[in-house]
């Protein structure tokens, strides 16, 4: 993703719902996006006022103050994602686009390479997760769990039912407080009807199996189980 200097005429974006006003999807990390924006400003490729507006937009949709988000993005423990990597292209770059477009209210006066493609992909919030590789999906689930204060309790290890997706490297269990587990479940629930999530079980809230809503299946009172499909 190449962020350049301001252009005189805002770049038009595809028509449709005001997607830049919605809450962030679970795989979209505002901290990493803010880190990229701040770096672009330091490199002189993004004006300070544009950076401030984009970070303020990210903070608003996350329920944070801009100062809190800047502080998190400046934390050395927050990992950097190399430009050109699959994680950057599929996750970080579109979130930066989300921030810039949101700050501009639907048009943007910043030259972002292929911004129309990135914006168009966001019309379907599940498209990025569905098409991502298994490793990217695993990273996104781990990252979401970490942001919610959850711990990963099982991936390929542990004892599971015969034929479990865990043994295929396609399932992860996470655990923590009931509130955090409920938030994790609801975050991925939007992807459980055809966008790459094959199973999603948390007994207090029920579950999803192969795109179908199901009741509590038992054995998932104290952890959330999520299984996912390989890319199509």
Overview of the structural elements:
The protein is α+β, with helices and mostly antiparallel strands and 232 residues long. The protein has eight helices and eight strands. The chain has helices spanning 30-42, 48-62, 66-73, 86-104, 115-121, 127-131, 134-147, 178-189, and strands at residues 3-11, 108-112, 151-154, 171-175, 197-202, 206-209, 212-214, 224-228. Strands 3-4-8-5-6-7 form a six-stranded antiparallel sheet, with helices on one face. It has a two-stranded antiparallel sheet with strand order 1-2. Strand 5 and strand 6 form a beta hairpin. Helix 1 packs across helix 4 and helix 2 crosses helix 4.
Main features:
232 residues, alpha+beta, six-stranded antiparallel sheet, two-stranded antiparallel ribbon, 8 helices, 40% helix, elongated, disordered N terminus
Give the gist of this structure.
The chain is α+β, with helices and mostly antiparallel strands. It contains eight helices and eight strands, in the order βααααβαααββαββββ. The N terminus is likely disordered.
Instruction: Report the β-strand fraction as a percent range.
Output: 15-25%
* Rg: 18 Å
Number of E-type strands: 8
The H/E string reads: EHHHHEHHHEEHEEEE
Largest sheet: 6 strands, antiparallel
Strand order of the largest sheet: 3-4-8-5-6-7
Gap between N and C termini: 25 Å
Instruction: Specify the helix fraction band.
Output: 40-55%
Number of helices: 8
Q: Low-confidence spans: pLDDT under 50, at least 5 residues?
A: 1-16, 108-126
Q: Can you give the mean pLDDT?
A: 76
Multimerization status? single chain
Shape: elongated
Helix/strand class: alpha+beta
């Amino acid at each position: 993703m190449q962020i350049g200097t301001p252009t005189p005429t805002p770049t038009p974006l595809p028509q449709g719902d005001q997607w830049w006003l919605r809450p962030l999807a679970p795989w979209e990390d505002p901290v990493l996006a803010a880190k990229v924006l701040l770096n672009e400003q330091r490199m002189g490729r993004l004006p300070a006022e544009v950076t401030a507006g984009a970070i303020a937009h990210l903070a608003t949709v996350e329920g944070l103050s801009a100062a809190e988000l800047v502080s998190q993005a400046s934390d050395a423990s927050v990992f950097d994602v190399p430009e050109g990597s699959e994680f950057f292209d599929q996750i970080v770059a579109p979130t930066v686009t989300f921030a810039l477009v949101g700050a501009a209210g639907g048009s943007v006066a910043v030259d972002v390479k292929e911004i129309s493609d990135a914006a168009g992909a966001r019309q379907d919030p599940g498209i990025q997760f569905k098409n991502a590789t298994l490793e990217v999906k695993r990273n996104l689930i781990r990252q979401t769990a970490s942001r919610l204060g959850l711990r990963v309790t099982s991936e390929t290890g542990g004892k599971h039912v015969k034929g479990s997706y865990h043994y295929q490297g396609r399932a992860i269990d996470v655990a923590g407080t009931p509130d955090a587990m409920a938030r994790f479940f609801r975050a991925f629930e939007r992807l459980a009807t055809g966008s790459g999530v094959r199973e999603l079980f948390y007994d207090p809230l029920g579950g999803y199996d192969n795109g179908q809503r199901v009741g509590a299946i038992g054995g998932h009172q104290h952890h959330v189980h999520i299984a996912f499909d390989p890319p199509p």
